[in-house]
Specification:
heterodimer, A: alpha+beta, elongated, B: alpha/beta, Rossmann fold, 2 domains
């Protein structure tokens, strides 16, 4: 599988899936992926690319799935440093990131 | 974002020209601004900045947040010498999104089967370099061990803006190379641009390991300021 988020997103749209693309739009401190990094998400949860080192992708996918059937919507998310509660979503590295999710409707 | 925009992004990537996606942070509308249209755009200043610095810029303009997400053509790696190290290096470079070109006039080395995914030019470096633009996103690596092949490529690179030049060969070989180039009129300060012996010193032994040390050095050049690289090399080599 090619790991380019945009190419995969287009392929999924053609196959009849709704698709979301998450983009890192700002980072503060030691964020794992630089601004501009992207994660493509298919409506069944399959993902390609990354917006962090694996720390927040799960939560980003959950947020994307919530809005993926409402095409052309936008959601902004922000993640900061985690405290000691292991189940909280956040960045262990001490960074802080802002992410934008865009949704797109399939052909079918 | 929609399907038409994704298609436009991919088409523009294939054209190997810079472009920028512009959107208001919380509004579902993204515009693709092609390189040739930047000056016409009301936010041309920010678009240029994002493209030149090769990073996404989030900027507040008149109380509204705007996203400028630049896409630049891939960095290029020119490998002179289609040797064993080149086979591993080309794979690593491809995987790091470099566009790889391999040059070697020796047909046995330049065989397409040895580099199925790369552009291979079976010609002498002086001819091959005529059709290559050595810009500031290009790295050049010479691996042949043959001065009559490597030197031409290195001289072309020294006269260009390429961001990395590396030459395989021992300290002794590199010293001889420097002496030859000084005789040919090159300034010692300019010759410091050649990374030789090539690669970060990780005590690499096999062709595969040498390729890793070269690729690491290329990436450190791409991502660091020139000064910090010099500092890095000095400290490493002295260890």
């Amino acid at each position: 599988m090619n790991n380019d988020p945009i190419e995969n997103a287009l392929e999924w749209l053609k196959q009849g899936h709704n698709v979301a693309i998450a983009t890192v739009v700002k980072t503060w401190g030691s964020a794992p992926r630089k601004a501009g990094s992207q994660l493509a998400i298919r409506d069944d949860g399959l993902m390609v690319g990354s917006v962090s080192g694996g720390c927040v992708e799960g939560d980003v996918v959950e947020n994307a799935i919530e809005i993926i059937n409402t095409p052309s919507s936008v959601r902004l998310l922000q993640y900061g440093i985690t405290n000691d509660t292991a189940w909280e979503v956040g960045l262990a590295c001490g960074g802080d990131i802002k992410i934008r999710i865009d949704t797109m409707k399939s052909d079918g | 974002m929609d399907k038409a925009l994704l298609e436009k992004i991919i088409a523009n990537k294939n054209k190997k020209k810079s472009f920028c996606l512009v959107s208001q942070a919380d509004v579902n509308e993204t515009i693709l601004v092609e390189n040739k249209d930047i000056n016409k755009h009301q936010f041309s200043k920010f678009i240029r900045k994002a493209i030149n610095e090769d990073r996404l810029i989030l900027e507040e303009i008149d109380d509204k947040e705007w996203i400028f997400n630049p896409f630049n053509p891939p960095a290029k790696l020119i490998i002179v010498g289609a040797v064993h190290v080149a086979q591993s290096l080309s794979i690593l470079a491809e995987n790091s999104d470099f566009e790889v070109t391999i040059i070697d006039p020796r047909e046995a080395f330049a065989a397409k089967e040895r580099f199925p995914n790369n552009k291979v030019i079976c010609a002498w470096p002086e001819d091959a370099f005529n059709e290559i633009n050595l810009d500031e996103r290009t790295a050049v690596v010479t691996l042949t061990h043959e001065p009559n092949l490597d030197d031409i490529a290195l001289k072309n690179s020294l006269n260009s803006k390429c961001f990395y030049i590396g030459a395989l060969g021992s300290k002794k070989t590199h010293k001889k190379r420097i002496d030859r180039f000084v005789k040919d009129g090159f300034d010692l300060e300019v010759l410091r641009r050649i990374n030789g012996p090539i690669g970060l010193p990780i005590n690499a032994q096999t062709p595969q390991e040498i390729a890793i040390s070269i690729m690491a050095e290329i990436i450190s050049s791409l991502r660091n300021q020139k000064d910090s690289i010099e500092e890095l090399r000095k400290n490493w080599k002295n260890r």
